[in-house]
## 1
Amino acid sequence: MEIGLGSYSFGFLAGLLSTLSPCVLPLVPILLGSATSVHRRAPLALAGGLAISYAIIGTSLASAGTALNVDAGVFRYAGAIVLALLGVVLMSGSLQQRYAVATSGLGDAGNSLISRMQPDGLSGQFAIGLVLGVVWSPCVGPTLGAAVMLASQGSHLPQAALLMGVFGIGAALPVAALAYVSRGAMAKMRGKLMLAGKTGKIAMGAIMVAIAVLILSGADKTIEAWLVSHSPAWLTALTTRF
């Protein structure tokens, strides 16, 4: 299966919503305050480390899934079922809360590790960003898992790596953007951002369930063929280049 523009867009949205998660967003101002005190460009180094960490974790998980040598058809349908289940989790606040409670131990251990790290200079902040990707992975599991499932459907590893890279950029973008917003403005925006994240997750969950239904019914192939035939040649070449 070739990963198209729609999958990359979905991966970017999943990354964006992962940072707007209730278990991530409240920590962002604290991390940015610490980073800014080290160097004015430190938040960018932090965001870059976070993006790369997510990309490596997601690509590793996606490649592990395809390396099992499971029949492509079986893997495709199994992935659709997992995608639907993750979509249901994203649409349910109670399920997300239970998931967060179940993985809270991993998050606490990771935060303890970060508190002992020395954030000296840009390299130190970059390292913290790398660790944050690991620490936050359990918390953002549903959105990360959705991106991984889409990436694992790709026929080539570079496609999976590119999609997970797009996810990482989406996750790092709010961190980099909020770094240059005043604390007062950040406090005012927090409620709106969390509401946007909640609404976005519900919408994305519904889309994930719809995509799963399309895959299970085989209708996605028809839609994919229509999109390819009606897309500009340069866009088709760009999204299938790898």
## 2
Amino acid sequence: MMEEDDFEADSLLYRNFQQLVHLKCPACWASISVMVDLSVQAQTYIEDCEVCCRPMEISYQAAEGRLMQFEARALEQ
């Protein structure tokens, strides 16, 4: 069973592996933000722009809890 202090420590560690990335939507050029999980070394996924709702492909690489490479590209519909 986890103690309350253990849970708080785990929550802090988990938060440290998340990073908010500010970017321009590749479809509408609006300023938006996405949250990336730096505990995953490499990831590619589809996310809709929060302004224009068009899909974009988010790709990133991370190492040792740091964002090393990030790309967002528009997807043709």
